[in-house]
Every structure is written in structure tokens, then in C-alpha cells.
Known about the structure:
single chain, about 150 residues, alpha/beta, 4 helices
Amino acid sequence: MKHIFSIILFACFQQQVFPQLTATDINMENVEYPFAVKFIRVDIQKQHFKMAYMDVQPAQPNGKTIVLLHGKNFCAAYWKQTATELQAKGYRVIMPDQLGFGKSSKPQVFQYSFQQLAENTKNLLDKLGIKKTAILGHSMGGMLATRFTLMYPE
């Protein structure tokens, strides 16, 4: 009885201290992103996946595009402020959720490498018709940005 009372007390305490916390599913369907999320199909390693991304168009385009690459244990949504400021300066901003992160597919069996993530990002840019872009990455995204520019210097 003592343990049941402790569990009930903890549950009530948790709801008062952390009322904003809610459970989420693995695909983050109940997590709101700052911009519209779209998906492309990615067929790699003999599997089919969905890769989520946001494509933020500026009101007054300057003709330049930038790709923002998230870090490990993050998703593209954390780029909100950066994307908003770049959009205001006329940039088209592309923010993918890499496979295994955010709203993208979470493969159970997958050989992760920076080369593979760079190929997925290039595939996204090709499907969007983007030939030239600036790349900016944070943490793991910085390592991915480096791999991407080494693989696709053009």
C-alpha cells in the first residue's frame, strides 16, 4: 500500500512540475514543427524509407539556398530561429531530418555512415531541383556537412 501511495504521489507531482511533457511516438507525429513537413521516398540498402524535410521559401528570394543539417539527438525543427532569419534575408532554407531522426523513418537494420547520410541529402536536393547550395551543420551535422562538400564539391 505504501508503494502504491508513493507512485500516485509521484505521478501527481510529475504532472504539476512537468505539465508540458507528453509522450510521443517514434515518428514524432504529435510534435509540431515550425514549418510544413514534407517527405520523400528513399530506397537504399534494399529497403524503403521516408525522409522528412522542411523547405522554407522566402517572400523576396535572393536566389540562394542553404541546407541546415541537425546534430545527433536533434531534429531539423531546432533550426527554427536560424531558418526564420535566413528566410527574412531571402534565402530558401532546406532542413532535412536524417534517417533515424525526427519525423524520418527509424530503420531497425541500417548501416549508418556520413557517406550514406550525404547521399540521402544529395538525393533530396536532386529531387527538389537544387543544383547549388550552401551547407551549414551543427555537431554531427557539421561532420555531415564536411562529408557532403567533399563528395559533392560542385
